[in-house]
TrEMBL record:
Biological source species: Actinomadura syzygii
Membrane-spanning ranges: 35-56, 91-114, 120-141, 148-168
Keyword line: Membrane, Transmembrane, Transmembrane helix
Protein name as annotated: VIT family protein
Superkingdom in the source lineage: Bacteria
Amino acid sequence: MLPVTLGVTDGLLSALTLAAASLLGKGTEPSASLAGRIGCAALVTAAFTMFVADYAERRGRLVRAGRQLNLTVRGQLATTRLGKRALRRSCAAMMLAGLASFTGAGLPILLGVVLPGPPWVTVLLALSALAGLGAALAQTFAANPLRWAAAMGAGGVLVTWIGTVVHIA
Protein backbone atom coordinates (compact mmCIF):
# COMPACT_ATOMS: atom_id res chain seq x y z
CA MET A 1 0.00 0.00 0.00
CA LEU A 2 2.86 2.41 0.80
CA PRO A 3 4.48 2.30 -2.66
CA VAL A 4 1.19 2.98 -4.44
CA THR A 5 0.11 5.70 -2.02
CA LEU A 6 3.51 7.39 -2.17
CA GLY A 7 3.69 7.05 -5.94
CA VAL A 8 0.23 8.38 -6.76
CA THR A 9 0.50 11.24 -4.27
CA ASP A 10 3.99 12.15 -5.48
CA GLY A 11 2.89 12.00 -9.09
CA LEU A 12 -0.15 14.20 -8.60
CA LEU A 13 1.82 16.74 -6.56
CA SER A 14 4.62 16.71 -9.14
CA ALA A 15 2.13 17.42 -11.92
CA LEU A 16 0.56 20.25 -9.94
CA THR A 17 3.93 21.77 -9.05
CA LEU A 18 5.79 21.39 -12.31
CA ALA A 19 2.94 22.15 -14.70
CA ALA A 20 0.91 24.63 -12.65
CA ALA A 21 1.60 27.59 -14.92
CA SER A 22 0.71 25.61 -18.05
CA LEU A 23 -2.38 24.15 -16.45
CA LEU A 24 -3.63 27.53 -15.35
CA GLY A 25 -3.09 29.07 -18.78
CA LYS A 26 -0.02 31.16 -17.82
CA GLY A 27 2.64 29.09 -19.57
CA THR A 28 3.04 26.82 -22.54
CA GLU A 29 0.05 24.75 -23.67
CA PRO A 30 -0.28 21.41 -21.90
CA SER A 31 0.67 18.57 -24.24
CA ALA A 32 1.25 14.84 -24.31
CA SER A 33 4.96 15.62 -24.34
CA LEU A 34 4.62 17.67 -21.15
CA ALA A 35 2.65 14.82 -19.55
CA GLY A 36 5.39 12.34 -20.48
CA ARG A 37 8.25 14.55 -19.30
CA ILE A 38 6.63 15.31 -15.95
CA GLY A 39 5.62 11.65 -15.60
CA CYS A 40 9.22 10.57 -16.16
CA ALA A 41 10.55 13.08 -13.63
CA ALA A 42 7.99 11.89 -11.08
CA LEU A 43 8.81 8.24 -11.81
CA VAL A 44 12.53 8.74 -11.17
CA THR A 45 12.14 10.70 -7.94
CA ALA A 46 9.47 8.41 -6.48
CA ALA A 47 11.33 5.23 -7.44
CA PHE A 48 14.61 6.47 -5.95
CA THR A 49 12.96 7.73 -2.77
CA MET A 50 10.96 4.54 -2.31
CA PHE A 51 13.97 2.29 -2.82
CA VAL A 52 16.22 4.18 -0.43
CA ALA A 53 13.58 4.41 2.31
CA ASP A 54 12.30 0.84 1.95
CA TYR A 55 15.73 -0.79 1.71
CA ALA A 56 17.08 1.21 4.65
CA GLU A 57 14.07 0.13 6.72
CA ARG A 58 14.43 -3.54 5.77
CA ARG A 59 18.20 -3.62 6.32
CA GLY A 60 17.77 -1.82 9.63
CA ARG A 61 15.30 -4.48 10.79
CA LEU A 62 17.76 -7.23 9.88
CA VAL A 63 20.57 -5.49 11.79
CA ARG A 64 18.33 -5.06 14.86
CA ALA A 65 17.22 -8.70 14.65
CA GLY A 66 20.85 -9.81 14.49
CA ARG A 67 21.66 -7.74 17.55
CA GLN A 68 18.70 -9.24 19.44
CA LEU A 69 19.88 -12.72 18.49
CA ASN A 70 23.37 -11.85 19.84
CA LEU A 71 25.06 -12.56 16.52
CA THR A 72 28.76 -11.81 16.70
CA VAL A 73 29.13 -9.92 13.41
CA ARG A 74 27.13 -6.73 12.95
CA GLY A 75 24.82 -6.96 9.94
CA GLN A 76 25.30 -10.71 9.60
CA LEU A 77 21.63 -11.34 8.81
CA ALA A 78 21.71 -8.74 6.07
CA THR A 79 24.24 -10.83 4.13
CA THR A 80 22.04 -13.95 4.14
CA ARG A 81 19.06 -14.91 2.00
CA LEU A 82 17.05 -12.54 4.17
CA GLY A 83 19.19 -9.66 2.94
CA LYS A 84 18.67 -10.70 -0.67
CA ARG A 85 14.93 -10.97 -0.07
CA ALA A 86 14.95 -7.46 1.43
CA LEU A 87 16.68 -6.19 -1.71
CA ARG A 88 14.18 -7.91 -4.03
CA ARG A 89 11.21 -6.58 -2.08
CA SER A 90 12.64 -3.07 -2.06
CA CYS A 91 13.15 -3.28 -5.83
CA ALA A 92 9.52 -4.37 -6.24
CA ALA A 93 8.34 -1.48 -4.06
CA MET A 94 10.54 0.88 -6.09
CA MET A 95 9.01 -0.26 -9.39
CA LEU A 96 5.49 -0.03 -8.03
CA ALA A 97 6.04 3.47 -6.64
CA GLY A 98 7.65 4.63 -9.88
CA LEU A 99 4.81 3.32 -12.02
CA ALA A 100 2.20 4.82 -9.69
CA SER A 101 4.00 8.16 -9.73
CA PHE A 102 4.31 8.18 -13.53
CA THR A 103 0.60 7.46 -13.79
CA GLY A 104 -0.33 10.01 -11.12
CA ALA A 105 1.69 12.73 -12.83
CA GLY A 106 1.03 11.98 -16.47
CA LEU A 107 -2.59 10.88 -16.52
CA PRO A 108 -4.24 14.12 -15.33
CA ILE A 109 -2.19 16.20 -17.77
CA LEU A 110 -2.90 13.79 -20.61
CA LEU A 111 -6.62 13.84 -19.78
CA GLY A 112 -6.48 17.63 -19.81
CA VAL A 113 -4.97 17.53 -23.29
CA VAL A 114 -7.50 15.03 -24.63
CA LEU A 115 -10.67 16.38 -23.00
CA PRO A 116 -12.16 19.54 -24.44
CA GLY A 117 -12.15 22.61 -22.24
CA PRO A 118 -9.76 25.03 -20.62
CA PRO A 119 -6.38 23.78 -19.29
CA TRP A 120 -7.32 24.48 -15.66
CA VAL A 121 -9.73 21.53 -15.80
CA THR A 122 -6.60 19.40 -15.41
CA VAL A 123 -5.93 21.07 -12.06
CA LEU A 124 -9.45 20.17 -10.95
CA LEU A 125 -8.92 16.57 -12.06
CA ALA A 126 -5.67 16.30 -10.10
CA LEU A 127 -7.15 17.97 -7.01
CA SER A 128 -10.17 15.65 -7.21
CA ALA A 129 -7.87 12.65 -7.48
CA LEU A 130 -5.93 13.81 -4.40
CA ALA A 131 -9.13 14.34 -2.44
CA GLY A 132 -10.45 10.95 -3.55
CA LEU A 133 -7.20 9.30 -2.51
CA GLY A 134 -7.44 11.00 0.87
CA ALA A 135 -10.99 9.74 1.38
CA ALA A 136 -10.01 6.22 0.32
CA LEU A 137 -7.03 6.20 2.68
CA ALA A 138 -9.24 7.39 5.53
CA GLN A 139 -11.59 4.48 4.90
CA THR A 140 -8.73 1.98 5.18
CA PHE A 141 -7.64 3.14 8.62
CA ALA A 142 -10.98 4.24 10.09
CA ALA A 143 -10.37 7.98 9.94
CA ASN A 144 -12.68 10.79 8.88
CA PRO A 145 -12.89 10.63 5.04
CA LEU A 146 -14.08 14.21 4.71
CA ARG A 147 -11.19 15.53 6.80
CA TRP A 148 -8.65 13.50 4.84
CA ALA A 149 -10.14 14.52 1.49
CA ALA A 150 -10.06 18.17 2.55
CA ALA A 151 -6.47 17.91 3.81
CA MET A 152 -5.22 16.23 0.65
CA GLY A 153 -7.11 18.70 -1.53
CA ALA A 154 -5.75 21.65 0.46
CA GLY A 155 -2.23 20.25 0.07
CA GLY A 156 -2.80 20.08 -3.67
CA VAL A 157 -4.01 23.69 -3.78
CA LEU A 158 -0.94 24.82 -1.83
CA VAL A 159 1.41 22.91 -4.13
CA THR A 160 -0.36 24.35 -7.19
CA TRP A 161 0.11 27.86 -5.83
CA ILE A 162 3.81 27.14 -5.22
CA GLY A 163 4.04 25.84 -8.78
CA THR A 164 2.62 29.09 -10.14
CA VAL A 165 5.13 31.09 -8.10
CA VAL A 166 8.16 29.11 -9.30
CA HIS A 167 6.70 28.84 -12.85
CA ILE A 168 8.60 25.82 -14.15
CA ALA A 169 6.55 24.83 -17.20
